[in-house]
Amino acid sequence: MQFNQKINILLIEDEEYDVKRVQKTIAPLSDQIRIKKIVADGQSALEALKKSPNYFDVVIMDYQLLGGITGENLIRKIKEVDATLQIIVITKMTVNITDFDFANRLIEAGAMWYCTKYPGDIEDFIYQPTDFILSILNAFEKRRLLKKEQSSKRKLEQSIEELLQQKALIGESEAMRALRSKIAKIAQQEATVLILGESGTGKELVATHLHYLSRRRFEKFLTINCGSLPHDLIESELFGFEKGSFTGAVEKKIGLFEAANQGTLFLDEIGELPISAQVKLLRVLQDGEIDKIGRTDKVKVDVRVVAATNKDLISAVQQKTFREDLFYRLNVINLYIPPLRERKEDIPLLLEHFFKHFAHTMGVDVPQISSSAMDYLQGFDWPGNVRQLQNVVQRLLYNVDGMIDVSDVKDSLGLAPKSRAAVDSENGFEWDPIHITPWREIERAFRKKYFEFVRKRAASDAQAARLLGLAPPNFHRMCKELELK
Ligand SMILES: Nc1ncnc2c1ncn2[C@@H]1O[C@H](COP(=O)(O)OP(=O)(O)OP(=O)(O)O)[C@@H](O)[C@H]1O
Ligand SMILES: [Mg+2]
């Protein structure tokens, strides 16, 4: 408690006699607790508070004022002016001292404390003085803490705003505008969201926006890529385990669902989730409870789930690799991000954005681009979507001095006959030493090339499957996944 701070009081009391009694009661600490203004009615009180915001710390108000705004109504109006203001109510003895309902109404309206005035024949005090003074000090302390909380919240809000600006969703196409407004709306809700879109369209970015625009924004936003972990690890990563629940469980592990409690969990590449984990995920989504390995009682969690995939989940459901009930449970709300080639008007804006961004981080000037190079970039189909465009911009900044021309663009897209980045082309692969391709992408590219290679040499699909040592249904499924017709 702060015994050295000055506390400014607004006193609302219409009886001169009681004003005197309040003054006498706080007299021992009059240096610190200062009645700065005395008004006789609610309206004047509100005017004084509005006129000098932040001047008063504590309001002491009589409950039985004559006319105008009084009682709970006045309490609420004061709190509207400044929610951190603390209100101490003093009431006549006529109020039944066991009337909890009355006390409750005052507290619910926003009062911090209330006391019944001493009988009128006690001239020196309005209430037991140490209690009265202590409650004023408490009120002041409560306000100080609330103010502090408000200011750190403001700072957090500010850094979240900055984060959202840094990670802005660029694009003015009809589709992007619609997407942004849908995100703003959906962020306010609690339902699970499924984000769909080709690789590199911005699914993770959209999930980030959903979290930081929601009421959960001050809590954690955690991400897991369901395709990046071996099947037997993913469940313990998601749901955790108790110490000793299996050999090797020497310590208990908090799963992501528990770690993200109150916040948002982003399940990327949800289509890769193994069936056994799908069952458990469904249970969390339905009951808000996690199945922790080695634990029989329930662990409640409050987590908003956002999932994403670039796979066709409906065909995965048909092929029984994805549970239908889980699909419907995830798909309560879905957000589809169209590929870049279907919103080409966003290309110049994205180019400008990334050129500025990366030139700035690399400490170089934004280069000039010839108009034919610009036309080429705009007309290109961008199979790797925004991520590919972003990589091309980075490559251009690394590789080109001066004006960027069509040949530079083709070079950076890997379309030129002699790519500067080519290091090892013996095996038909061009590995770029500056921009290492993520494993999943290169693995997929390899599978695709090898499948094509084998199919060209096989008389039929059945033979190709046999040569590859795959069962025909698996072979067909993989061809479909690799977009080989
Ligand atoms: N509209 C956009 N405005 C600005 N940056 C974008 C936009 N869309 C995507 N990006 C950027 O492109 C990159 C790829 O986006 P992101 O990782 O969100 O895609 P993704 O759909 O999750 O891809 P994948 O399916 O491969 O995981 C990120 O750096 C992201 O910030
Ligand atoms: Mg992603």
TrEMBL record:
One of its GO terms (molecular function) is ATP binding. Keywords: ATP-binding, DNA-binding, Nucleotide-binding, Phosphoprotein, Transcription, Transcription regulation. The keyword Membrane does not apply. It comes from the Bacteria. GO terms for biological process: phosphorelay signal transduction system; regulation of DNA-templated transcription. The modification 4-aspartylphosphate is found at D62. InterPro entries: AAA+_ATPase (IPR003593), AAA_lid_NorR (IPR058031), CheY-like_superfamily (IPR011006), P-loop_NTPase (IPR027417), Sig_transdc_resp-reg_receiver (IPR001789), Sigma_54_int (IPR002078), Sigma_54_int_dom_ATP-bd_1 (IPR025662), Sigma_54_int_dom_CS (IPR025944). Coiled coil: none annotated. CDD domains: AAA (cd00009). The keyword RNA-binding does not apply. Residues 8-132 form the Response regulatory domain. PROSITE patterns: RESPONSE_REGULATORY (PS50110), SIGMA54_INTERACT_1 (PS00675), SIGMA54_INTERACT_3 (PS00688), SIGMA54_INTERACT_4 (PS50045). Residues 169-398 form the Sigma-54 factor interaction domain. This is DNA-binding transcriptional response regulator, NtrC family, contains REC, AAA-type ATPase, and a Fis-type DNA-binding domains. It comes from Caldithrix abyssi DSM 13497.
